[in-house]
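Exercise 3.2. Students should predict the tertiary structure of the chain below and write it as structure tokens, then compare their answer with the key that follows.

Predict this chain's 3D structure.
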Amino acid sequence: MLVLVAVVLLVVSAVYWAAERTDWAGARPALRAIDRARVQVTAYVVLSPATFIYLFVLAVTSWVLRSSSDRTQQALLATHSTNLHNLHADPVGVLVTSAFYVSSASLGRWIVPFAAVMAPVERWLGTLRGILVFAAGHVLATVVTAYVLEHGLISFTDTDTTRRAIDVGVSYGYYCVAAMFTYRLRGRWHWSWVWATGLTLIVVVPFLTDRTFTSFGHLTAIAVGFCLYPLSRLAPVRARWALPIWKPPERAVEAARISLRARRAARHPS
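Answer key:
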């Protein structure tokens, strides 16, 4: 899948470069439309740097896993997994590194949630606060789940595999950010209640039906996110609440437009 996307992007880039280089009159309307889309996307990405840098790092680690042998892949995931064995041996190390690995097959399904949820939350809270919310969900959900497993407080269906289970990924942090997104929607035609209800069902139903430690971690992560409501009341955060959720501010779009024109002028002085 990733290879196919890369090939399509390369082909589109080559056609765009050729049409721009030759100044083909028939392609000008299409080039203008692409330019408008480029400045919008550029502005959107620039305003949420941590989200898209993180997504790029995940793409790199997923490519490493995909290009490795099955034995190497399993060894890497086992080393960075937040299972009970690793949490006892190197708790800080695995809590950090486990958030930078997802299976190569699952990376594609995180692109839209990152762009549609994590990016606007980062822009709303500010990059540092956005990172702290993600980290809080990832760390607290992992630690609480490990504590419950270690002390047998809940009977899980996969308890016999948890001490050395493969447990890496972004889901705990993402679900915490997704819960925080509820407060970004507050006051917008009751969409916050719809979002909070849907998100809760998404994590509660699997926990009740499957009762795995991962589903319990997701439940804990959204609870952490809902409890971070005071962050939404900070003055800098409140000042940005009235801005559009997904549409970049015009000043950011204009800055991207100026940057595009400057790069084009540098390449084609004539």
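Discussion points: DSSP finds 13 helices and no strands in the chain. The domain at 48-247 is CATH 1.20.1540.10 (Rhomboid-like fold).
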